[in-house]
Amino acid sequence: MKNMRIPILSAICVAIFGLIFGSIFDYQLSTAIASPTNGFGLFISVIAPTIGFCGLAFVGGGFFAISFKQDKMWVKILFIALAVLGLGIGTYFAGKEFFGVNGFYEKAPNIVGYLISFVCATGAEVGGYFVFKDCKNKYAWVSFACVYIVLILVLVVGITGLKSIMHRPRFRTVADGTGLVPFHAWWQRCANYKEYMADFGYASEEFKSFPSGHTGEAAVLVVVSAFIPLADEKLKKYQLPLFIGSCCFVVLVAISRILAAAHYLSDVSMGALITLVFTCIANELLIKFMPKNSPELLAKE
Predict the structure, then answer these.
(1) pLDDT band at 103, cuts 50/70/90?
(2) For the chain, is the Cβ count within 10 Å smaller at the N or the C terminus?
(3) What is the predicted pLDDT for the residue at 288?
(4) What angle (nearest 5°) sits at the alpha carbon of residue 189, between those of residues 270 and 93?
(5) pLDDT over threshold 50, residue 43
(6) Residues 145-162 pLDDT 10s
(7) What's the confidence (pLDDT) of residue 293?
(8) 3-state SS string over 31-65?
């Protein structure tokens, strides 16, 4: 946990730099490189949530594996329910992106997207089960729970909460050629978004630019890589490489969202920043409280 302080803080600094740079050059950057028909941007945007939520399903597999080692029936049921929840969340939220407004819109029935995400999430959950089925750490559930709690705070409270407050117009809407919706900086709330929807027929989805949900969903892997290795000593050596690789994936997704004209640089930077800040807070709480509660987790820290 202490060894993750510098990597997490370094990633936070990168996200803050992106937010500052975007605050100045958001519109110019998107004007130069963004297009709602950018194939690469759309492709990465479509698969990113599936890959990200596979991390959550993997943790769900861990919950399922350790459920068989619990003595109390209510704990068994709780862990199995959390495993099912991870699979369900991964399937639903990733599946709707394939052929929704942020993907290859109506190129295929939505059920196809859900089937793809279900197969991927199931594979990740099975993988998590086999990785942790022989885990002997009785406190492994703590690191699993940290992943779930951080992701709830990030995706539900942080990102969705800010979207519902700011209603920032997406670049593809600002630059649609009509000139009806003006550019808004990330700190400028679009208070009259409902008027644009009523008068010009825009969908509510076009006013959910800030912060980026896709970037937050991709950053699920960052959270998983930070906490899952604490559950089993054999995974510790993979912690930093997985964290770095996850951060690189988040950067790729962030770039794709800008290229697809769905988000500005400040949007994707804030989506990553929210995830990293909550991850940092959770990591510090573990450092503070875990030594007296579960020395096994810190035996070789």
Answers:
(1) low
(2) C
(3) 77
(4) 50
(5) yes
(6) 999 999 999 999 999 999
(7) 43
(8) HHHCCCCCHHHHHHHHHHHHHHHHHHHHHHHHHHH
Exposed e or buried b for every residue in 145-184, given b needs 16+ CB within 10 A?
A: bbbbebbebbbeebbeebbeebbbbbbbbbbbeeeebebb
Q: Which pTM was predicted? A: 0.89
Q: How far apart are CA 31 and CA 36, in angstroms?
A: 11
Per the rule left: phi > 0, alpha: psi between -120 and 50, beta: everything else, 179 is left
Sign of the four-CA dihedral 102, 103, 109, 110? negative
Residue among 248, 272, 273, 268 nearest 258 (CA): 268
CB-CB contact of 80 with 69 (8 Å): no
Read off the pLDDT of each residue in 262-279 and give the average, rounded to a whole number: 96
H/E element, 142: helix 140-151
The one-letter amino acid code at 9 reads L
Q: Which of 115, 151, 100 is nearest to 271 (CA)?
A: 151
Q: What is the mean pLDDT of the chain?
A: 90
Query: 200-225, pLDDT tens digit by residue?
Result: 999 999 999 999 999 999 999 999 99
In b/e form, how buried is each residue of 78-101, taking b as 16+ CB within 10 angstroms?
ebbebbeebbebbbebbbbbbbee
For residues 185 and 19, give the distance between their C-alpha atoms in angstroms, rounded to a whole number.
11
Q: How many CA atoms lie within 13 A of 177 on its CB side?
A: 2
Helix axes 73-95, 140-151, angle to 10 degrees: 40
207-234 burial, b if ≥16 CB within 10 A, otherwise e?
bbbbbbbbbbbbbbbbbbbbbbbbbbee
- 89 touches 56 (CB < 8 A): yes
